[in-house]
Structure formats: structure tokens, C-alpha cells
Design a protein that fits this description.
This protein has 6 helices and 7 strands, in the order ββααβαβαββαβα. It has 218 residues and is an alpha/beta fold. The protein has a single domain, classed as Rossmann fold (3-Layer(aba) Sandwich), CATH 3.40.50.1820. Strands 1-3-2-4-5-6-7 form a 7-stranded mixed β-sheet, with helices on both faces.
Length: 218
């Protein structure tokens, strides 16, 4: 078994070159999706001076089981996925963009990965956008003492949105994740869409665009 399956996966780029960017956005695709798919958001956001980075998961899946499975059951893929995001963020920093101008965003499995990454690699990022996702772990685990303690987001904006019911993500986990992030100092916007299918609505995209604009202009 490959102990680091995502390490050598490609990272697609869009928007402006990083040396001309005032904001960088890491976009994480969902299970079965692709970096090309998630980059469709670039034209929807239609923002100037933004560089986008979209890694491709090995086998189009960041981790094999549900995000609410025991964490060890999703290893080594989960740790590899978190390390992949970390390496991208570090590369962006080396190019001269500080973390408070880096937004981590994703959809579905990518939203879960984005949320878990920000919570476990905490800093004052430009923001978190989680379209239908939440913190990773079995029921009852996200409030474990010490797991996400000792961190402070300094009012980092975080958008967590989801349909309810959703076939893959329980609304209760989205709420729990918002609560944990808020306790860590994030400024959380939580949006519930009754009956919305497993997709991203126009209203959610509008909320996300405003978050990106605010981060870019900060």
C-alpha cells in the first residue's frame, strides 16, 4: 500500500500567476470529482488578482470511506490528503502570499478535507469555504477535549453551507463543525438549505464570492 498516495498528484492552477495575485484560493474537489471540475468555480467567482490551486486526488478520492468513519479506517489516505494541502499552502507562502490571504475551499469530500485541514493546521487564513462538509471523524468525536484546542483563528471568516437532508453529510455534523470553529475564534456563517440536492446553489456561490472579495481587499 502506498503510504502517501496523494504526494505526487498534479496541482492545476488558474486565475492570475501567483506573483501577480493579491489572494490565493486552494480548491478541493469532491469524491469522484476532479481538479478540472472544481476549477469551474473560477469563472463563476470572476474575481481579478486571484490565483487558484486545485490538487487532484489519487483515484479521484481523498479517502476511501465516509468522513464519519473511524479516522484510522481512512488512513493513510487522509493524512496524505492533509499533507498535500499543507504542501500547497507552504508553496503559496514561499511565493509571497501570507496565510491571511489564503482561502481553503472545497465541495463535499473536499469540504470535509478543507474544514479538517484548517482546524488542525490553524492559523489566521483568509477564510474557509465548506460547501456541504464538516470536520472528520465518527459521531461524537469532533468535540473531544484537546483535539482542536489551543488554536485561535482571530475572526477568520468561515462559510459552512449544506442541504438538509443531504445523502452524504448530516446537518448535525455541519452544525457541530461550525460550533467548534466558532469556539476557535472563527467568524462563522452557517447556511442550511432544506431539500437542496447534493450540489452548490447560486446563493451559496454568492456568499462565497463575497467572502473572497473581503479576503482579497483586507
Amino acid at each position: 500500500m502506498n503510504s502517501d498516495p496523494h504526494a505526487n498528484g498534479p496541482v492545476l492552477q488558474a486565475g492570475v500567476p501567483i506573483q501577480h495575485a493579491s489572494l490565493a484560493v486552494v480548491l478541493l474537489h469532491g469524491r469522484g470529482g476532479s481538479a478540472e471540475d472544481i476549477l469551474d468555480l473560477v469563472s463563476v467567482f470572476d474575481l481579478k488578482d486571484v490565483a487558484y490551486f486545485a490538487p487532484q486526488a489519487a483515484g479521484h478520492t481523498w479517502y476511501p470511506l465516509s468522513f464519519m468513519a473511524p479516522r484510522e479506517a481512512n488512513e493513510p489516505n487522509l493524512s496524505s490528503a492533509l499533507a498535500k494541502v499543507s504542501s500547497i499552502v507552504e508553496g503559496i507562502e514561499q511565493a509571497g502570499i501570507r496565510r491571511n490571504r489564503i482561502v481553503i475551499a472545497g465541495f463535499s469530500q473536499g469540504a470535509c478535507l478543507a474544514t479538517e485541514f484548517v482546524a488542525t493546521h490553524s492559523a489566521r487564513y483568509g477564510g474557509l469555504i465548506a460547501f456541504t462538509g464538516g470536520l472528520i471523524g465518527p459521531p461524537g468525536s469532533v468535540r473531544e477535549n484537546g483535539r482542536y484546542s489551543g488554536h485561535e483563528f482571530d475572526s477568520m471568516p468561515a462559510l459552512l453551507s449544506s442541504g438538509d437532508p443531504d445523502p452524504h453529510v448530516l446537518w448535525q455534523r455541519v452544525e457541530e463543525s461550525a460550533s467548534v470553529l466558532g469556539a476557535m475564534g472563527a467568524s462563522v456563517t452557517l447556511r442550511r438549505y432544506p431539500g437542496r440536492p447534493h450540489t452548490i446553489s447560486a446563493e451559496e456561490l454568492d456568499h462565497a464570492r463575497r467572502l473572497l472579495e473581503k479576503a482579497r481587499n483586507a
